[in-house]
Amino acid sequence: MTEVLQNIPLLATERTEALLDIERHLIAGQSAIERWFRSQFQMTPAPFYASVDLRNSGFKLAPVDTNLFSAGFNNLNPEFSSLYVSAIQHYLNQYYPGLERLLLIPENHTRNLFYLENVARLRELLEMSGLDVRVGSLLLEERTAYDLPSGNVLLLEPIFREGNRLQAAGFDPQLILLNNDLSGGVPEILENLEQPISPPLAAGWRSRRKSQHFAHYRAAAHELAEVIDIDPWLIDPFFRRCQGIDFMRAEGRDCLVANVDAVLELTRERYAHYGITQRPFVIVKADAGTYGMGIMTAYSGAEFMDLNRKERTRMAKSKEGLPVSDVFIQEGVYTFEQTAEEAVAEPVVYMVGQQVLGGFYRVHTGRGRDENLNAPGAHFEPMAFGEPCILPCRKSPPDAPVNRYYAYGVIARLTLVAAAREMADWRQQQASGAAS
Amino acid sequence: MTEVLQNIPLLATERTEALLDIERHLIAGQSAIERWFRSQFQMTPAPFYASVDLRNSGFKLAPVDTNLFSAGFNNLNPEFSSLYVSAIQHYLNQYYPGLERLLLIPENHTRNLFYLENVARLRELLEMSGLDVRVGSLLLEERTAYDLPSGNVLLLEPIFREGNRLQAAGFDPQLILLNNDLSGGVPEILENLEQPISPPLAAGWRSRRKSQHFAHYRAAAHELAEVIDIDPWLIDPFFRRCQGIDFMRAEGRDCLVANVDAVLELTRERYAHYGITQRPFVIVKADAGTYGMGIMTAYSGAEFMDLNRKERTRMAKSKEGLPVSDVFIQEGVYTFEQTAEEAVAEPVVYMVGQQVLGGFYRVHTGRGRDENLNAPGAHFEPMAFGEPCILPCRKSPPDAPVNRYYAYGVIARLTLVAAAREMADWRQQQASGAAS
Fold first, then answer.
1. What domain of life does the native source organism fall in (chains A, B) (predicted)?
2. B155: which residues sit within 8 A by CB, 6+ positions away?
3. Residues of B with CB below 8 A from A132's CB?
4. Does residue B402 lie in a domain region?
5. Residue numbers in chain A where pLDDT is lower than 50
6. Domain count of chain B?
7. Tens digits of residue pLDDT in A113-142
């Protein structure tokens, strides 16, 4: 069973005036915000799905990661299933009107039953939307049924090619939906297919870069900040990147030190401006990749002068052994949200197409306010939002749960605008690649 | 406050096998049903909004009226507001991507505060979807603010023309949304406007005909019945029409008698086939018009041989004095739904675009199972559905509330397919009218 939050986590800080101010501007500007999003997604269509990790420090509300191969659909509040299905149906109406047969390709880690619950839930939502769905495995050579803790059964099937069409036994899909972030690169079986693939192969972590996403996010955040008249820093974290880093050989260390210090200096200036007394920090992570490997919290550039062997090894590799050579340095945003049990919590917001579905809190009892919480394990617990983040309530105070959730939905969609612009870049690259 | 049903009304009949069978087929065929609807609305787009009166006799589930100028949005379950707003947003994305300014034109009966609550709610939902909305009155010469029982204030404004553009003071709308069924005919101020009008003027009750709607419904019901393999009669009421009727002068009486008997005979045959022991009846009403005036229940054609003066007067006029000359004779469908207090209940389902929003029960303590319940007054009480009618639940029995609501949503959308085809007819008539 999905655990649903009865109460939104507490903001354990006194410094909430700036956040209250953001929320006030978001509520007052709701109509203009919705119009702005509509025009954005008209220009650059949203991806099929996305999920965004947010951090809320009370004085700043900002995204830290945008996932285009969202897992965790099983963690959403089942009470709003109608909303999820209608979001899928609207996406199909708009972009795939004739679609009937869809092949879903999940990650390969079939031993993770939590992940398989996500796949089963996603398949169910797609089927309820009126699609004929099969789940194809990149690994299996025989059909395999997995019994899940929820009581659901998930059937994974082998896939094969007929010429340039991907197939399962007796099933010729019209669309391939990836729930696999391609950290291991693009498998040959997916290359040069006749069928469209969503998200596109370029969204995989071999080619996608966080720095490109956050450059688009910065531009979008500045545009929206103008619409609602706020300081864009309140929703946009500073960042820098370094290329050609080799942690094991300490190559590129000077770039790291200089850029960590640069981000800290910029952050310090904003903290001083707002009278924030917390200590600025940065998060250093692979510019490509995900899953909380190779992520480090730092309070000064000097920390990178003398990393010990263990730290260097940890930073040098990301998921599926993808070596880290491009490094993304992002202003750290404290999470001052905590559950009644004082565990640190971080909201994750889900979207299908341009519609927010709600989300859940990633609750971590073993980590601090300045650490990455996307680290599954014994201390990790998802708590579904009690509201779908779509509507503010003008009659409630700006920090009422419904309004805080709306703020999360707005910032999440802002990252979606950035992702939509990334997708437009990829289409253009592909078009110019095909032309050259 | 909108009263929300905790329990679905009871089906007070033993004869529910056929309904259970319909519901089983709907649940089993959900994916195919959703695909079928998607392809239908791709061919003929759904109107902006619609609401449908359904009747559920346990052995038959059928629509009896489809309203293209839906009132009663204030009676929907406020818990699903996010769903309503997302439905409006999706409609805008698909059909009016650049829309910012909308003028809503309500009915003229400003003394009906229940109706004004509907207008206020509709305006609120449109605003939350990101539109700049004004409410224009066809009657008022000065801006007038109405204080509503809910505590909301509704501002109505005078409207005027600048050439062929409809305006309110300082407001140049891009779309006119009608919540006025034009029973009194099309006012000159709305004719030949530059701006699009939704629903189109042809949807007004001066020109729209129930017989045309139900002819399209019949075709659509037969198509869907094939998809899910059921007898189409289970969801489709027989009907006939008579033209050139003058109730006061008893002109056209023979047509009435013959067609009432014909519908009863057809119904009798189906009742016999299913072993239904209830007495067949018909509902006789104006082919144009609405609002429960000029509506009669009859058990034989002979009843029309000797209508008394009062009955004739009642039948001769519909809303706003629209004279009845075309008469629609429809197979009566018993409503065997009743509340815990044994009041007769009839479901009304709401849609925006092709999305079902849910609905409410029209509960009437002063009327019988074979009577029209759309008669506002002291005995009338709306009870919001507890579910949005979008998703069935395969793990629940076919007659579980969630599944009965899903069945209502399917039949409601089937009338929407019919309405979409009516709209296509109107566009074609307009195009050929413009060409000639």
1. Bacteria
2. B135, B143, B144, B145, B146
3. 31
4. yes
5. 292, 378
6. 3
7. 989 999 999 999 999 999 999 999 999 999
